[in-house]
Design brief:
It is built from 2 helices and 9 strands. Helices cover 13% and strands 37% of the residues. The strands form 2 sheets. Strands 1, 2, 3, 4, 7 and 8 form a 6-stranded antiparallel β-sheet that branches. It has a 3-stranded antiparallel β-sheet with strand order 6-5-9. The relative contact order is 0.24. A hairpin with a 2-residue loop joins strand 5 and strand 6. By secondary structure, it is mainly beta.
């Protein structure tokens, strides 16, 4: 299936062919645990869940800062991974590279249920 890999370390965005299994996600994002950011109703961005805790390079997508590499894949109505419908050019148009040395401060908030 088709995915799109965003690599802020060499500032490249390229299509990748993947099987859609966990090993591919870990390999392409170069992380040991990942999180998923919804980009649309059918497309997701897989990112390093510990990205903010590492010395990383950053990029923004749709104005949202992301630490480390990002892998875009689609999903079906059952949540299974499928090829993304986004084009390489669509992603290139919405990604901006942040300068080396840029840092985001991790933030977490806990709220009690009422």
């Amino acid at each position: 299936m088709k995915g799109i890999l965003i690599n802020p370390f060499d500032e490249t965005i390229k299509e990748v062919s993947i099987l859609g299994n966990l090993e591919d996600i870990y390999l392409l994002t170069e992380c040991s645990t990942f999180d998923v950011v919804a980009l649309s109703e059918t497309d997701d961005l897989y990112v390093d869940d510990e990205g903010l805790l590492k010395d990383n390079r950053y990029f923004t997508i749709y104005g949202k800062p992301i630490a480390g590499r990002g892998l875009i894949m689609g999903h079906d109505v059952e949540g299974n991974s499928i090829s993304t419908n986004l084009s390489l050019q669509e992603i290139k148009d919405v990604v901006e590279w942040l300068p080396e040395g840029h840092r985001e401060t991790p933030y977490m908030e806990f709220k009690a249920w009422t």
